[in-house]
Amino acid sequence: MTIVFIGAGRLATNLAPALHDAGYDVVQVYSRTMEAAKQLADRVSALATNNVDEVKTDADVYIFSVTDTALPQLVAKLGNGRKKAVFLHTAGSVPMTVFEGYANDYGVFYPMQSFSKERSVDFHLIPVFIEGNTGKALNVARQLAEAVSNNVKELSSEGRRHLHLAAVFASNFANHCYAISEELLRPYGIDFDVMLPLVDEVAGKVHQLSPREAQTGPAVRYDKTVLEAQMQLLADKPLFHDIYALMSKSIHELDMGK
Q1: How confident is the model over 74-91, as pLDDT tens digits?
Q2: Where are the domains of the chain?
Q3: pTM for this entry
Q4: Best CATH choice for the domain 161-256 from the list 3.30.420.40, 1.10.1040.20, 3.40.50.2300, 1.25.40.10
C-alpha cells in the first residue's frame, strides 16, 4: 500500500515515520515549503515536493494532515484523477464529508494526542479514531490505525467533534493554566519547575480516580475566605481574575452535581 502525505506539520512528522516503521511505503510528502517536505520525506525515504501539481496520482492512500482552513482547498485541487485512491484526513473538528464529490472512498484517521516536531511519541499508546464512508475506506483506515496503535475506535464525525472539544479542555486549557502559573511565579524569581511534582501527581491521580474525585483545593471546598483572598491578589490582572473566578465557580458547581 503506497501512501502520500499532504502536509508535513507536527502530526505528520510523527505519523509518517510510524507508518513507515510499520512497513508501509510512504512514497511522497507535499508541503507548502520544500524545507518542511524534504525534512519529513528524508525520514521515510520518500520524494518531496512543494508543488501541488507534482503530487503523485497513482498512490493508494492520501493522508491530509493540514490545517482545517487549508484542507478544503487542497482536497479540491487533488480530487481530480485520484478516484481509485482512499482519502483520509487527520482533523478533529472537520467532518469526513469534506471529501464528498472529490473522492469515492474517504474517511478519517484521527490520533488524539498533542504532537510536536521536537518530541517523539509512542504511537502504540495513542487512541486513534477512524471513520469511513465505504467499507473499503473504513477497512483501510482501520488497517493503518491498527498498524501503529493498540487502541483503535470507530467514531462518527459528530462524536469526533465533541471528542476534540473535550481534548481542548483536557490539554490546551490545562496547559494554558500552567502558563498562567508560570506568569504568576516569574515576578518572584520562582521557576515553574517547582510545580512539576504537583502537575505529575495530579495527572497520575486521574489514572486511578475520576477527575471529579481527584479534585482538591479551595473551590471544591468552597472556602470563601481563601477564594476572595486569592482573587484580590489578581486585582491587577483582570483576565486572570476572571478565569480564576469562573474556574472556581465551575469546580464548585460540578462538584455539587456529583
Answers
A1: 999 999 889 899 999 999
A2: 2-155, 161-256
A3: 0.89
A4: 1.10.1040.20
